[in-house]
From TrEMBL:
This is Aldose 1-epimerase. Its EC number is 5.1.3.3. GO terms for molecular function: aldose 1-epimerase activity; carbohydrate binding. It comes from Kitasatospora gansuensis. Beta-D-galactose binds at N84, R85, H179, A180, Y181, D251. Belongs to the aldose epimerase family. The active site is at H179, E318. CDD domains: galactose_mutarotase_like.
Length: 353
């Protein structure tokens, strides 16, 4: 059904030719348009109408190649082989230790300095969307096992599904996510502090100064991390709380309600812009959700609107396994073994409130 409703188009991303190896795939339904780049298997654009039918780009993005390759390199990208942070730049699997490429401060972030977000993926059309594939060799950024990864983007009406699969030649760890930044009022329209956010979570994972989880889950009740009912993103973002002060806002992983055992994506978050009426429902098979409110943005990226993105210009809702799971035996495991298949799915459902 999606194949009949969705137009799929492929073209070079950079008209100057400097980025000719990067392809842009456009998925267009009667309600929504999504664009995907082969660089980083990136969700580069998402256009949706407001309550009056006026469309707007609701992802932070840039059309400047230098930006895509530079300060915006994680915007909307598929990050891996291990999304988020691993402490001390090492993992141990079956008693064997593997040193990993580090990104600074004794941490391996988003798979290392040359993670999946920096690679050119191969791409092919599938019904209603595009399939991107990447081969990560044994030892890539220090991770054991040759990993073959597939990411499908499929658009059906106002619903975009991102489906991940991976197989390995040796025991390894895998944690994949999409790193899109949303502003439902439209990119360049200001901050997201007035957006209403609901998170289907009763706990989160507090972190140390390196953004590494301390270990035990912490209940959100009675704290600025309680989004169990809808509240503005900015309501408590500047409260006198040590976790907020250290990060300059939200950059934390929420422990989602139990996922369905049959692998059906379950709601994780609901985001609403009261002004435009646009809503975003996020469903996932993953046990965690990293919420990042662009605390470190200082105008280094300029969007299609011509506006430079400052602090709180967007919000990332990264479905994932919990950060540093390889060092936290109480967290859901991220180990993948030969003969197994990693599967994960995230659904972005756009609407009007």
């Amino acid at each position: 059904m999606a194949a009949q409703q969705t137009e799929v188009r492929r073209e070079p991303f950079d008209a100057s030719g400097a980025g000719a190896a990067i392809e842009r795939w456009t998925l267009r339904s009667d309600r929504v348009e999504a664009t995907v780049l082969t660089l980083g298997a990136t969700l580069h654009g998402l256009t949706a109408p407001d309550r009056d039918g006026h469309p707007a780009q609701i992802l932070l993005c840039t059309e400047e190649l230098t930006g895509v390759l530079g300060p915006a390199r994680h915007y909307g990208a598929t990050v891996g082989r291990y999304a988020n942070r691993i402490a001390d730049g090492r993992i141990t699997i079956d008693g064997e230790e593997y040193p990993l490429a580090q990104t600074g401060n004794g941490v391996t972030l988003h798979g290392g300095p040359d993670g999946f977000a920096h690679r050119i993926w191969s791409a092919a059309e599938i019904p209603g969307g595009v399939r991107l594939q990447l081969h990560s060799p044994d030892g890539d950024q220090g991770f054991p096992g040759a990993l073959d990864v597939t990411v499908d983007y499929v658009l059906d009406g106002a619903t975009l599904t991102i489906a991940y699969r991976a197989v390995t030649s040796r025991p390894t760890v895998v944690n994949l996510t999409n790193h899109a930044y949303f502003n439902l009022a439209g990119e360049g329209s200001g901050d997201v502090l007035g957006h209403l956010l609901t998170l289907d979570a009763d706990a989160y994972t507090p972190v140390d100064a390196r953004q590494i989880p301390l270990g035990p889950y912490e209940p959100v009740a009675g704290t600025p991390f309680d989004f169990s009912t809808a509240r503005p993103v900015g309501k408590a973002i500047e409260d006198d709380h040590p976790q907020l002060a250290a990060a300059g806002g939200y950059d934390h992983n929420w422990v989602l309600h139990e996922r369905r055992p049959d692998g059906t994506p379950t709601r994780a978050a609901f985001l609403e812009d009261p002004v435009s009426g646009r809503t975003l429902e996020v469903l996932t098979t993953e046990p965690g959700l990293q919420v990042y409110t662009a605390n470190g943005f200082h105008g280094a990226v300029r969007g299609p609107s011509g506006v430079a993105y400052g602090k709180f210009a967007g919000i990332a809702l990264e479905t994932q396994h919990h950060p540093d799971s390889p060092h936290q035996p109480g967290y859901p495991s991220t180990v993948l073994r030969p003969g197994e298949e990693f599967r994960s799915a995230t659904v972005l459902r756009l609407g009007i409130g």
